[in-house]
Fold:
Amino acid sequence: MPQVHPDVLRSGDAAQIQAAEALVKALTVPNWGTRTFKAGKMTQRTLDEFAPYQNIPEVKSLLESIRRGEPVDGLLLKWAKRRYPEKEVAIQTPDDLNQWFEQVLRDPNATFHKPAAHPNSRYAIHSALVGRLAVVDRAGQRISVYQHDGTQLEAVWQTLSALIQFKTP
Amino acid sequence: MANFKRPDPVQDPLIWYREMVRYGLEEGVAPGLREQREHLATISLSALQIQQLADLDESVLLIITDLESEYPPLDLLADSHDQPLTHWWWHLGKLRAGTYPAHLLPPHLREIYPPVAQRHTA
Structure:
């Protein structure tokens, strides 16, 4: 089980404690939240790119929710984008995206990049080992994971192993 | 566990830009997007890749000019004044503010570049 690194707790650094707690939550609670689409050109582009797959039950359901302006499961949406329009063979099930995400956050050498000062800004964690960037919100919700070559990232704030540790049972 | 192969940017030069645009930009986190776009402006692309790039560019413009977005990519909105204006990807802040000279955009982007007054209903 992951836990906040004791040195972080001892430091009393509120920003680091918040970040470490968010990472622990993101690892232990696979919650991707929801997304609600509003009418507009980007929403239309999303509908258009899924149109050829509208007879597939999960896509049909997704499209209906988008059209009605109902919240769409964040994981299902990101998985469906990769599975259908992108036709990515590696991403067969939504759980494959969970694995992508967890592989980043389980890499002790993954780098945690300093978030912007804005309260809405999100955390970016990059694993050179797996070549991916995970995005986590400040409350520990999983936001995204995608392939990134690791260049042009913001300054490294911490390595993951300095913020959290994995306690063996 | 699924077999996750690493992408090959030689075979697929759009890979990093596509990933950032499709899975990072709308979430407010797409570090290196401008540099990747600059790189793509310097290499030869196939006709299909040029078409795919145009499509991704349109998404960038629509996302950047969505003023209702809860998570704008703040770090990308600080423009690089030492970059030519014609390289619009270095001037996303101006594009968002509506102060970018529209005539410098490629036609397919100019067509969807929303006047500031229409941004809230776009």
